[in-house]
Amino acid sequence: MDNKKLLILGGYGNTGQLIARLLLQETNAELILAGRSIKKADNLATLLNDRFEGDRVTGICADASDVENLKQAFHGVDMVIVASSTAEYAKYVAVTALEVGIDYMDIQYSTEKTSLLKSMTSEIEKAGRCFITDGGFHPGLPAALVHYVAQHYDKLEKANVGSVIKVNWARLSLAESTAYEFMAELTDFESLVFKKGKWEKARLQGMLDYITMDFGRGFDRQYAVPMFMEEMRCIPETYPSLSETGFYVGGFNWFVDWLIFPLAAILLKLFPKRAAKPTTKLMSWGLKTFSKPPYGTLLKVESAGIKDGKPITEDVTLYHEDGYMFTAIPVVACLLQYLDGSIKKPGLWTQANIVETNRLMKDMERMGVDITIQVQ
Ligand SMILES: NC(=O)c1ccc[n+]([C@@H]2O[C@H](COP(=O)([O-])OP(=O)(O)OC[C@H]3O[C@@H](n4cnc5c(N)ncnc54)[C@H](OP(=O)(O)O)[C@@H]3O)[C@@H](O)[C@H]2O)c1
Q1: Which protein residues are within 6 Å of ligand 1, measured from CB?
Q2: CA torsion angle for 143, 218, 332, 29 (degrees, to 10)?
Q3: Which class does domain 5-136+324-368 fall in?
Q4: Which of 30, 74, 149, 371 could form an S-S bond across to 100 if both were Cys, CB 3.0 to 4.6 Å?
């Protein structure tokens, strides 16, 4: 693996700093940590240079809303990893990456970002750049889990993926932009599921079409509502024998799920600007006040189909106690494949559909994700 130079936008944020640590542990890459505070970037760079060999980290000031600043920051870099809560500036970051001639990876869930990047596909291909979008846990892993189980069937008929994120929010410090982005995503997502051979819109933002999944580990049976992930779009075409697939997101706590999110969704539709701050505050309060242990983050695929003429089922559960580690680990597992050139190719890709899943699973397990597989 050569010494690539990677710039992490949001490099001292919760997810960004874990990506940085894992990259230093797993690769020889040189890192630039960027954000709007040079002090925070410098402090973390010094700390990481003390902890890891090679003096490979520097800190810089970069603002995703400032194109000239981004141009300077991207100069001499191989790839930008967007781990900042800057989905609203996705255009600036992606266009500047193309202009300067560097590769790109992001970890945000944002329908606007997805349509923007899709509209740039031919420019990305013409420029010969590798753009990987929707990195992380979700987005990032649901479709990869379907690819993983699909190889064990002659005919895959059903593959539903669900997640549980139980975090001790009271102990977390989130940037205001991150909290707002989080709430905007969770109150305005597409809720499509693939049933009886076609994509269907779920009713009332999925609240009437929830499923329950047994996640085990003290989380037991939980409800989860359909949340469309771009990475799932190609799944029914890839496996035409599938009659049912989709991604379902689990709840946070009863108060936030059934009271705050529906209220925030209505207020944000009616008054997008004026309601942003108060609804974000309300959500932060609800998460901090009503979230109770056990804490942990899980992703599970429940699949069914035919193998050697017999019906079988395969359930795969991925678990990490820390949701941020569980976001950073798949990003770095994907980057290991990018850095050795095996998935570095021109075009726009989603993490879940560009990675080789067997290696992804092995690398994630080595980095601390607990994997349970049950075949019946
Ligand atoms: N795919 C997944 O599974 C997954 C999971 C978790 C989170 N995420 C996403 O990851 C992103 C980061 O989440 P987080 O919880 O790590 O956030 P966080 O801890 O609040 O960190 C956000 C980082 O972004 C930086 N930032 C904010 N505005 C910026 C700007 N205009 N220019 C440059 N940097 C800026 C912040 O630094 P300054 O404010 O000092 O500039 C900070 O370093 C969010 O978009 C979140 O939705 C994805």
Answers
A1: 9-10, 12-16, 35-37, 40, 62-65, 83-87, 107-108, 136-140, 174-175, 177-178, 181-182, 327
A2: 180
A3: alpha beta
A4: 74
